[in-house]
Amino acid sequence: MPSPAVPVFVTPDASEAGRRALRDALGQFATGVTIITTLDAAGKDIGLTVNSFASVSLDPPLILWSIAAGSQHVAAFAVGVRFAVHILGQDQAALARHFGRPGVDRFAAVEPELEIGRGLGGVPLLGGVMAIFECLLETVAPAGDHHILIARVERFAVPGGAPLTFFAGRFGGVGTT
Ligand SMILES: Cc1cc2nc3c(=O)[nH]c(=O)nc-3n(C[C@H](O)[C@H](O)[C@H](O)COP(=O)(O)O)c2cc1C
Hints:
Layout: H1 16-26, E1 31-32, E2 34-39, E3 45-50, E4 54-57, E5 62-68, E6 82-87, H2 93-98, H3 106-110, E7 116-118, E8 124-126, E9 131-143, E10 146-157, E11 164-167, E12 170-173
Bound molecules: flavin mononucleotide (FMN).
Flavin mononucleotide (FMN) is lined by residues 33, 48-52, 65-68, 71-73, 96, 99-100, 102-103, 166.
């Protein structure tokens, strides 16, 4: 049966069910998956899995992503900080899960198995990824329960490969039909 031209609309509300419904609806937008790394104020390696990454501008070269205002890492992402965006490959779902685990020191737990290089400003770089963008944070814009971070791309590298995807709460890959 064809779907109706005008579907049933839902108005967002702050109840638990309302929040889940909006999250599930937004999850219909298929994305790639990144891990974003930096050093915190104490010089410690930190990182988190992020799918809110997007390109913004080619000239000047700008990208954005958003971080939860309640994240343990929010203070580390201040204007002037350098960070690296790693676009993950299809075989890196376990790494994405690891860097998405709340409340753990992700580098301490993963370091023995993970090859880590150093980029601009000593930012930790992860191996085996599809692309890396080294960025300088220019704008932090609070927006609801997140902060939108806009950054200038200083350097990038593209080892290439097939992408890891995230859709409807699940990791996957791009079909080759
Ligand atoms: C696929 C995926 C995408 C995510 N995208 C974001 C994101 O865009 N922004 C964000 O702040 N957290 C995102 N997270 C959550 C973080 O990876 C991580 O769980 C969060 O930082 C945990 O809270 P903490 O920072 O307080 O430890 C994502 C998690 C997963 C698994």
